[in-house]
């Protein structure tokens, strides 16, 4: 009986996946007239909290809430409350979406698969120019990792990022080392 239930659940999950894949939204339209040369969303050094194990998702949702709502929310409490977690504490994107919505943040999950690398960069610059930080999921040290982009400088080809897994700040181990100084976030990506 348990095997049959598992098989039915797997089949339903596969069908749901096929439906989602077949109903992809079209890629967003980029309005290059909205893109500035540089733009920064305020994210001070004092908010560069260092995550606990596998808590990059909730630490980044807390970072966005702090930046957009100017509220000093607790990243550790976000980690305790986030849903859509796997047994190893990895957080699925729906957990981040739900937590952001619960905190009054309007979210978008654009389909960027059809975009070239240049178009993806333009899209990020456009969204940041509209005061919309971007949580991205990418690879780091052979695993998936969330980070938040808080600014850019197109003349330097740089993005200013909060990465909750940067090395510890020696003066306060609950924070990361801030390599960005006066720029938002704690590290710079080219």
How does this model look, in words?
This protein has 190 residues and is an alpha+beta fold. It has five helices and seven strands, in the order αβααααββββββ. The strands form two sheets. Strands 1, 2, 3, 4 and 7 form a five-stranded antiparallel β-sheet that branches. A two-stranded antiparallel sheet has the order 5-6. A hairpin with a 2-residue loop joins β5 and β6 (172-176). α2 crosses α3 and α2 packs parallel to α4 (93-102). It is globular, with a radius of gyration of 18 Å. The mean pLDDT is 91.
Strand content: 15-25%
Order of helices and strands: HEHHHHEEEEEE
Mean pLDDT: 91
What gross morphology would you assign? Answer: globular
- Determine Rg (CA atoms, Å): 18 Å
User: Span from first to last CA?
Assistant: 54 Å
Q: Main beta sheet, described?
A: 5 strands, antiparallel
Task: Write down how many β-strands occur, each being a DSSP E stretch of 2 or more residues.
Answer: 7
